[in-house]
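pasting for ref
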Amino acid sequence: MSVGGGAVNRGAVASLIFGRIVYAVNWYSLAAVFSLTASELNQNVSGLGLVTSTFFIGIGVFQVPGGILSAKIGPRLTAIYGTTIASLAALLTGFAGNLVEIAVLRFFVGLGMAFVFAPGVILMARFLREGSEGLGVGLYNGAFSLGGAVGLSGLAVLAAAVGWRASLVTGGLFGLFTSVLLWFLVPKDSRRLDFTVELRHLRLVLLDKWLIVLSVAMLGLQVGSTVYSNFMAYYLESVLNMNVGEAGTIASLALLFALASAPFSGRLFDRYGNEKRLLLASGLLMAFGVGVAFFGTVYSAILSGVLVGIASGAGFTFGFSAARAANRLDKEYETLAVSWVNSISLFGDFVPPLLYSYLVIQYGYSPAWLYMAVLAFALVIPVLLPKVSRQKRAHAET
């Protein structure tokens, strides 16, 4: 993945991309090794649903506080603090003695990551040349996909060799190394001395109807991406009797194809810009991708991963690019706009893991895939509603 000639500060961009890769490794690390964790702790798919949901509660609830903190102290320091918290919690998960401890630590992994994503999006846009902002978001999302593939396949292989605990500790250590890189390679934020966060400006962001519609659409994309990336490996191991390495490789297909589609989608957004049509097309492809897993074969799982990956790489890039562009206030509020969209989508995403595991227990895996596909597309449909006209950027003092 090249940062290309559009980078204004290549060292900063490279460190942000590397940090995003490690961020994704720790996002998916537990899903990659949960079959081994479940065996040791006497758990099943409902246990995976629980720890996945607590993670999404943490990352969802703290998106807006992270956006507000970024407005006050800058995106650089916010990202560094969040990376450190998430990495320490990921490392400590390797020493957990029961499912409750894992669930609590995964909550803190999510909390830390809530402080990282939106600041990273804003920093990537700032460190690329004007007119390449969508490409910056695409590269950042592509890095997440690459890291997720490494987490699902690489950590699964590592866990099979040295144990699931050592693999989780390894991911946490890489995360702490990322904090050091960000500290030294990302320039300090240039901040307005007269800037203050005001309640009336927060209300403008939090009550923006278009941002809320965007967040619901992003939740639809999250539903499909979450159930595939967090449950497919376990499904292949427990139902189709594949080994950990093979299952992790297939489950990582979605992330590999997202890696390929995200930068291209960023360029498409920069040139085309019709976010409603782009998001609707992404949602339809996502629903079809998740629904294909209904057939319950290795081939359908592979096709599902390809389609889910293309849809997520494109859809998340379109959605977060649109959220950043929708900011009507000073640039300090860009992070909050992205955080707000991410907050609703991620907080709402704590439900799908619980719902999916419930549907599996009640009806089996095939109907569960189908039901989640329908839910994913239904949540994207609101982008067709008339949106509030985007206003020109206004300075805080107006």
